[in-house]
Inverse folding.
């Protein structure tokens, strides 16, 4: 559904993405793994059109997304750090988003209820804690029932109860044949939530295949261990060069 | 797009700054007409204040507002909305708010005290100046990600057009005063929106005789319908070009 071909991005002299090629198919859930600063968020933002790659192509359903905007109606995005207009209340924010996307077919307000956001609709965004902000971001990402969900560290900063709620929501939506791209540093979460793993290091895609295959290849049962094996292998390869 | 304009405008209205700006303009205008018996003199004094304050407030307020709405822009960019609508909505909302302030603060009282053709020019040039400096502010804002730097660039624009440029013109005229400079200074004035606005009003006020031969030349040019159309057109260009350039830059920007 989304295919990325030879995408490179440079910020000044810093090469953040080095010729990344990957395909994302509907019905699958992709875990985007890598150390801090490996280019995960830049890759996500490139798909969303917030960062424009220096070269390469990004296609969605066979059409290039560079300079386009309509395709974003099919994407729900939960940013790593949700930043919202300070003066707005939660209620106003949701009303505004619904108003701006008045032609969206279905509204899925399930997370608003399960996170209890409906009880604090009058709170202004700048008074919210980091975790509550995350809940707002998550609820917004799922609000328009999109086919593609891009979640940038969805569980970071959430309390254990909220983590379970969002995981249950992701699993429930996965049943409904959607495409998920999830980044996280919590391997056990990704183990539960994803079928494929992409390992990015320093802007290069090192591993890109199903998690089952990764486990089989490395002989590990847990994703965390399997990734650690890949990381070690990669380090020794670098050392050898 | 009008929906986005609505939300940006609501946000600006919630900001007390625009209200303060309106009250300040109102106060200045009413004071000028109260202490000056001669309405031409009042307009002239008012003109000097407005030519300083309108560009300054327009450019600084716009730059700060743009940086403060970064979160909002970021949020909109993840939605199915194109960058041009987001950018132009921001522009329209801010320019409209500042123009409304100008109309209420200067336009209405000045029409009340001195209903004449001069007043119409005063209002038109003030509004055009607002548009020009809002455009320049967008230029300053898209050039950098850093708020302090952006405001610095905006202030530099203002200093340049309000103070430094006049000094440069004077220097040119003084150094080359043996040559006929009318056409050259005319061209030089076109390069500064503040001067363009000033000269329209000065010539309308019939005090151009004070400016000697050059003044007579200007009067002949700017006093005519063609001259007025020229200066309004130039001001339009001054509003349009920076806006187009900053829009192009914004479309290529990484958020």
């Amino acid at each position: 559904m989304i295919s990325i071909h030879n995408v490179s991005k440079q910020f000044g002299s810093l090469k953040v993405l080095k010729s990344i090629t990957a395909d994302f198919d509907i019905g699958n859930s992709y875990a985007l793994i890598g150390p801090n600063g490996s280019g995960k968020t830049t890759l996500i933002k490139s798909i969303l059109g917030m960062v424009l790659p220096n070269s390469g192509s990004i296609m969605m359903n066979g059409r290039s997304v560079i300079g386009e905007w309509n395709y974003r109606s099919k994407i729900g995005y939960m940013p790593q750090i949700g930043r919202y207009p300070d003066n707005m209340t939660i209620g106003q924010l949701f009303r505004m988003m619904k108003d701006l996307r008045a032609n969206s077919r279905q509204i899925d307000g399930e997370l608003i209820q399960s996170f209890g956001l409906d009880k604090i609709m009058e709170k202004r965004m700048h008074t919210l804690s980091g975790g509550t902000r995350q809940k707002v971001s998550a609820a917004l990402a799922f609000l328009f029932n999109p086919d593609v969900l891009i979640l940038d560290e969805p569980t970071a900063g959430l309390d254990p109860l909220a983590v379970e709620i969002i995981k249950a929501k992701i699993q429930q939506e996965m049943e409904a044949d959607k495409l998920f791209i999830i980044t996280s540093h919590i391997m056990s979460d990704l183990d539960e939530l994803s079928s494929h793993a992409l390992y990015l290091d320093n802007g290069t895609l090192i591993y890109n295949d199903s998690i089952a295959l990764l486990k089989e290849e490395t002989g590990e049962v847990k994703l965390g261990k399997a990734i650690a094996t890949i990381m070690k292998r990669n380090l020794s390869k670098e050392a050898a060069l | 797009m009008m929906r986005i304009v609505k939300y940006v405008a609501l946000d600006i209205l919630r900001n007390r700054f625009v209200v303060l700006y309106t009250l300040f303009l109102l106060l200045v205008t009413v004071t000028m007409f109260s202490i000056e018996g001669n309405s031409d003199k009042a307009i002239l004094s008012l003109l000097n204040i407005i030519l300083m304050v309108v560009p300054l407030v327009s450019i600084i307020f716009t730059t700060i507002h743009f940086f403060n709405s970064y979160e909002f822009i970021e949020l909109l960019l993840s939605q199915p909305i194109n960058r041009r609508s987001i950018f132009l909505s921001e522009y329209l909302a801010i320019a409209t708010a500042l123009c409304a302030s100008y109309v209420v603060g200067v336009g209405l009282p000045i029409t009340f005290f001195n209903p004449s053709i001069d007043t119409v020019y005063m209002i038109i040039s003030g509004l055009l100046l607002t548009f020009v400096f809002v455009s320049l502010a967008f230029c300053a804002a898209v050039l950098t990600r850093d708020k302090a730097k952006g405001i610095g660039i905006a202030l530099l624009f203002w200093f340049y057009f309000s103070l430094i440029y006049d000094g440069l013109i004077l220097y040119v005229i003084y150094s080359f005063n043996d040559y006929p400079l009318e056409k050259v200074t005319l061209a030089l004035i076109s390069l500064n929106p503040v001067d363009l606005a000033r000269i329209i009003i000065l010539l309308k006020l019939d005090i151009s005789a004070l400016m000697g031969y050059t003044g007579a030349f200007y009067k002949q040019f700017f006093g005519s319908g063609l001259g007025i159309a020229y200066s309004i057109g130039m001001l339009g260009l001054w509003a349009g070009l920076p806006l187009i350039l900053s829009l192009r830059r914004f479309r290529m920007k990484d958020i």
About this structure: The mean pLDDT of chain A is 91.
